[in-house]
Amino acid sequence: MNFLRSRTFRSKLKSAFLIVIILSVLITGGFSYSISAHVVEKNALHLTQDTVTKSAQIVDEKLNKLMIIMMTFMLSQPFRSMLKDASTGEADRYYTHLANMDNVFSQARIAEPLIHSIYISTPIGEFYPLTINRNRHTRFEDTFLYDRVRLENQNVWVEGHEDMLFSGNDRVISLILEPIFDVPVKDVYIVVNIREEGFRNLVEAGVGQDAVRFLLNADGIPVYSKNSNLVQKAIGTAPLLNELQQDVAVIGSASYRIDHRDYLLNYARLGITDWTMVTMQSKDYVLRDLIYVKWMIVGITLGAFLITALISGGLARYLLSPLQGLQRVMKRVEANDLTARFDGQGKDELAQVGFRFNRMLEQVVVLIDEVKQAETNKRAAEIKALSAQMDPHFLYNTLNTVYWKLKLGQIEESQRMVVSLSRLFQLGLNKGNEITTLQKELEHVKQYLEIQALCYPNLFHYEIRGGDSRFASWPIPRLMLQPLVENSILHGFKDMETGGQITIEMAYDPDQELGEITVTDNGRGMEEHLPEHGYAIQNLISRLQLFYGDRAKLALDSKPGRGTMVTLTLPRGGEQHDEG
C-alpha cells in the first residue's frame, strides 16, 4: 500500500483498470469463436464508422472554415471597393485595387495555410497575389473551371487538377465562388486553389494499418490523385459505385470482396460538398486476434468474480479517499469557513489538486483584502476630488471678488458670479452621485471659467467647441475637467497678465465608440510647473482607472513656453443619468 501511495493517480487507475479488464476478459472468454468474430466485425464497422464520420466532420469544418475566410475576404473594404468599380465598368483604378488587394490575399493565405492561391476574374481585369507568377498563356475563360461554374451557376468544388492559372503546374483542388455584393455583379468569379497534397494528408490522417481512405465525387471520380492500387481496384468495382451513388444515406457500411480478399467498407458524405469519404480495411486484419480467444476460456471460475469484486472495491475506496477529504473541505468553504484546508498524504494527482485548492483559498483571501483596499482607495479618491472642487482659496477669492465688485457698483458682474457659483456647486455635488454626463461636466467647467474670468479680468479667454449629441449624453466621472483648467489658470498663466487662452474641444468616433476631450492652454508649459499640478493629474488618473480600468487614456503634451495640451480618450461605459 505504501508503494501505491507514492505512485501517480494515473498509474493507480491504470493498475486498477488492468486488473479489472484482465478478470473481465477471463470471464467473457467462454463465448464461442463465431459469436466473438461477429461481434468484433460489427464493432469494427461501428468504430471505423465513427472514425470516418469524425474525419468527414473535420474535412467539412476545414472546408467550412475556408468558406468563412472567403466570406470575410469578400466583405473586406479593398474587395468591395474593387467590386464596386467592376460593377460599373470603371477600370481607371485597376492598379490601385491590385495593390490594395494584395494585403487581403496575404491575410487569407495566412488564415488558412492550405490555400495555394486566389484568383479573381472581373470585367475590369484579373486580380491575384503579386508574389505568384500568373500563367499568361491561359485565360480563365478558356479553362474548364469557367465551363464548370457557368454550367452549375453556383459555388463549385472542383476535384484535383493541375493549376492552369499560375506557373508551376502544381496540383490543386479549386473552389469557385461568385461574389456577395449589394447589387448583382456579372462575370466576376473567385477561384480559390487548395494544395492537393495538404488536403490529401488531412483526409488520410489517422488511417490505421492495412486500411485506406479516399474521397469520391458524385460521379465516383477520385477527388485527388496518388491513390493506392487497392483504391483504384475498389473504384473499378461496379457494385461499390452503384451503392454509393444510389444510397441516399449520409453514412453506411458494407462488406466487399476484391481480389479474393474480404474488405470492410465505411463511408460518410460531406455536408458542404457532394463528395463521399470512404474507408476500407482488411477483414482478416480486423479479426487477426480472435484466435487467442479459444485459449482464454481456461481459468473461468466463480472465484474470478469474488476476486474482482474484492480488488475493485478495495482499490475504489483507497483511490477515492483523498477526493472525499477534499469534498469535506469544500463543504466547510461553502459554509464561509475560509480557514478550511486540505490535509492529504501522498504525491498523486488528487493530492496535488487538494494542495492547489489550498493555494486558491489563500489567493481568495488575498483578493478579498485587495477589494476592500480598492474600495477604501476609491472613497479616498472621491473625497479628494470633492475637496479639490471646494478649494477654500477659490471660494475665498470668489466671495472677496463679489464683495469688491458690489463695493464698486458692478452689480451685473456680481450677480453673474453668484449665479455661476451657485450653479457650480449644484453641478459639482450632483445630488451625491459620482457619475455625471459630459454635458453637465462641460456646464460645470464653464461656470468655473466664468467665475475665474471675472476674478482675473483680461487674464485669459476660453472657448468650448465641437462635440456630438451622442457623446454629450455619455456617463463620465464628475470633476474631470475642472482640475485641468484650474492648472492652466493658476500655474500655466502664473507669470502672465493678459493674453491667456484655454480651449476645450470634443471629438467622437462612432465606429469604435470612443470620445476624446482636449484641454489646451498657451501658458508657460509643463516642465516648470509639473510638481505643482502633478497631484491633480495623478488624482484624475486614479479616478479614471477606478471607473474605466485600462480602457481610458490620458496624454500630456507640453513644452516650456509653448503651453500644455491634455487629451482624455474615453470609451463608452457606465450608466446614463438624468440631467439635473
UniProtKB/TrEMBL annotation:
One of its GO terms (molecular function) is phosphorelay sensor kinase activity. The chain crosses the membrane at residues 295-320. It comes from the Bacteria. The keyword Lipid metabolism does not apply. Its main location: membrane. One of its GO terms (cellular component) is plasma membrane. Residues 317-369 form the HAMP domain. It is found in: Cell membrane. Keywords: Cell membrane, Kinase, Membrane, Phosphoprotein, Transferase, Transmembrane, Transmembrane helix. It is a multi-pass membrane protein. This is Sensor histidine kinase. It comes from Paenibacillus mellifer. The lineage of its organism: Bacteria, Bacillati, Bacillota, Bacilli, Bacillales.
